[in-house]
């Protein structure tokens, strides 16, 4: 028996149930079923699955099975007439694409190359996995980044960077590089907010850059202060030396095979007194400490690292094999070794899984 009084068999069974319910939650989020259910029902006016199916333009039989799973999993409510609704206090969490809801969609893209990952574990197996083996991961990360960061990048994160960054962006004439930009969410968000500044998004993924180049302003027009480049972050163009006022990385340093080469390149392309801000996964560099201070979040992030970040960051013989949970100590040590002697660690409570590291080029 565990300290909670639950046997290991019970714990394993509960994990299996949670896995099923979590993936069913993801289906509801992708099909907007929670939002539709909250729009047409309440405790006083519950609805039949056929009513939800009609509102969501889905097949009734599939929607009925989904409702049954959600009710038995205690996500939505059901009465004896088999009518369903969402508790009023849960409408906001389920009806909007909050971070916690979106996170339930992570397992499907992570498990796509599961058989290949199993081979990576073996002594004589491959070193790691290619980014291209995760065909839907970039799209998911774009959705998750938006849910996690959209409300706080401009209002909270940028002021926390300091060095007059907000004022410089507003005044214009500055160049900003977003390393590991993925599908371009952060770059486009900032480019729209600060039209007088110029933004460059860089990513090694062909599909990611293709998605990024399709981004438009909220008005549907083409950006005139934003460009995207497919490039290895460890081998940036030579003409970029001393050319950027601000370089940003959002959760994209730890899964590179050679993050040290990336940070060295960032140091090179920054102007003197330029600013580097790296948003990375929360962690201490010690699993015992992480377990004690982060609880179940630590288990989730170590697991995500095992499925994706570690294998893509281990896929060459010279790889440093950091993983998502490399943590504060290793991150600060790496930045210092790569040319940033003074590193400021900034708490980001508005980003619940992150810390931010800020440094200037001297």
Automatic annotation (TrEMBL):
Database matches in InterPro entries: Methyltranfer_dom, SAM-dependent_MTases_sf, WHD_Rv2258c
Signal sequence range: none
Domain Methyltransferase residue range list: 173-282
S-adenosylmethionine-dependent methyltransferase Rv2258c-like winged HTH domain location: 24-84
Superkingdom, taxonomy of origin: Eukaryota
One Pfam match: WHD_Rv2258c
Matches recorded under PANTHER family: METHYLTRANSFERASE DOMAIN-CONTAINING PROTEIN, PROTEIN CBG10435
Name of this protein: Methyltransferase domain-containing protein
Taxonomic source organism: Caenorhabditis briggsae
């Amino acid at each position: 028996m565990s300290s909670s009084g639950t046997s290991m068999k019970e714990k394993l069974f509960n994990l299996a149930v949670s896995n099923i319910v979590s993936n069913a939650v993801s289906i509801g989020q992708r099909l907007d079923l929670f939002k539709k259910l909250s729009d047409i029902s309440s405790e006083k006016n519950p609805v039949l699955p056929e009513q939800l199916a009609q509102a969501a333009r889905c097949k009734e039989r599939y929607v009925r099975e989904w409702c049954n799973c959600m009710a038995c999993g205690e996500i939505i409510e059901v009465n004896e007439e088999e009518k369903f609704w969402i508790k009023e206090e849960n409408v906001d969490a389920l009806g909007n694409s909050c971070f916690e809801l979106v996170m339930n969609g992570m397992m499907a893209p992570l498990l796509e190359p599961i058989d290949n990952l199993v081979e990576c574990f073996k002594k004589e197996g491959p070193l790691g996995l290619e980014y291209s083996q995760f065909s839907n991961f970039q799209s998911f990360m774009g959705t998750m980044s938006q849910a996690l960061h959209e409300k706080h990048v401009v209002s909270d994160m940028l002021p926390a960077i300091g060095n007059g960054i907000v004022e410089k962006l507003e005044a214009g004439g500055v160049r900003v590089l977003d390393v590991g930009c993925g599908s371009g969410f952060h770059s486009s968000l900032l480019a729209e907010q600060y039209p007088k500044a110029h933004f460059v998004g860089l990513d090694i993924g062909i599909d990611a850059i293709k998605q990024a180049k399709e981004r438009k302003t909220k008005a549907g027009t083409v950006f005139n202060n934003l460009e995207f480049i497919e490039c290895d972050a460890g081998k940036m163009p030579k003409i970029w030396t001393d050319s950027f006022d601000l370089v940003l990385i959002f959760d994209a340093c730890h899964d590179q095979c050679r993050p040290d080469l990336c940070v060295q390149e960032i140091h090179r392309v920054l102007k003197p007194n330029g600013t580097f801000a790296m948003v990375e996964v929360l962690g201490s560099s010690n699993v015992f400490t992480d377990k004690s201070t982060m609880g179940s979040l630590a288990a989730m992030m170590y697991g995500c690292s095992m499925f994706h970040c570690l294998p893509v960051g281990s896929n060459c013989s010279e790889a440093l094999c950091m993983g998502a949970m490399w943590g504060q100590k290793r991150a600060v040590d790496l930045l210092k070794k790569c040319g940033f002697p003074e590193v400021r660690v900034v708490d980001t409570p508005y980003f619940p899984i992150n810390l931010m590291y800020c440094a200037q080029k001297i």
